[in-house]
Amino acid sequence: MVRVLYANNYDHMSAMAANIIAAQMTLKPDSVLGLATGSTPIGTYKKLIEKNKAGEIDFAPIKTVNLDEYCGLDESNDQSYRYFMNDNLFNHVNIDKANTYVPNGKAEDFAKEGAEYDALVASLGGQDIQLLGLGLDGHIGFNEPCPEFIGPTHEVELDPSTIEANARFFASKDDVPTTAITMGIGTIMKAKKILLIASGKNKKEIFEKTFFGPVTPEVPASILQFHPDVVAIYTEG
């Protein structure tokens, strides 16, 4: 079941998302949080940091699993997703970084890394809630449009539109990695609850295709229509 909510602006969307995650942490203090990167969740993380500093939520017993990582980057690179998570959340809350997991972008064998990452997620009991952004092409994680839904964590060649969208974070478009390792659709869909956030007028069409159009691997996020517990929040602002 998908519940679609509309926020007044980006700050409102971020507050709504943070409240849902905080509620999960309150109901189950040792929750496994599935986390996402990119510009959309930054506001949500800021709200969670505020709640942690105010004593409303406790990250000490929390474990986290991230969706993806660029191939070829490690945590010392300021464009890696491990660096992003440290900088935007982990460094500012009372979480044990040993309990935070991001796929290894420097793995020698990405097929092996993917299988081991899926086994890790399963060993933690799976994600109690999985936070997702939404790509302009409908990707979730780095699951790009393709002829079929790919289940396990895997290496993927990034779509040109994704590279273009992410170029603003790099010195130039040529510096953007062309491959990534990402949770597959199957790993994402095993989460007990999914929270998708999307902001900007440029996301309106793909948001509507995702939740009100046909389910197709050409719009990877559309598979979420089959999940039993999804909250999707959209704002134009």
Please identify the top-level CATH class: Alpha Beta
Shape: globular
Q: Profile the largest sheet.
A: 7 strands, parallel
Quaternary status: single chain
Description:
The chain has helices at residues 10-27, 42-53, 81-88, 110-123, 160-166, 185-189, 204-212, and strands at residues 2-6, 32-35, 63-66, 68-70, 100-101, 129-132, 154-157, 179-182, 194-199, 230-235. The strands form 2 sheets. Strands 1-10-9-6-2-3-5 form a 7-stranded parallel β-sheet, sandwiched between helices. A 3-stranded antiparallel β-sheet has the order 4-8-7. The relative contact order is 0.19. The protein has one domain (2-235): Rossmann fold (3-Layer(aba) Sandwich), CATH 3.40.50. The two termini are 26 Å apart. The mean pLDDT is 96. It is α/β, with parallel strands linked by helices and 237 residues long. The chain is built from 7 helices and 10 strands.
Short description:
The protein is of the alpha/beta class. It has helices at residues 10-27, 42-53, 81-88, 110-123, 160-166, 185-189, 204-212, and strands at residues 2-6, 32-35, 63-66, 68-70, 100-101, 129-132, 154-157, 179-182, 194-199, 230-235.
What secondary-structure arrangement, pairings included, does this model have?
Layout: E1 2-6, H1 10-27, E2 32-35, H2 42-53, E3 63-66, E4 68-70, H3 81-88, E5 100-101, H4 110-123, E6 129-132, E7 154-157, H5 160-166, E8 179-182, H6 185-189, E9 194-199, H7 204-212, E10 230-235
Parallel strand pairs: 1-10, 2-3, 2-6, 3-5, 6-9, 9-10
Antiparallel strand pairs: 4-8, 7-8
Helix pairs in contact: 1-2
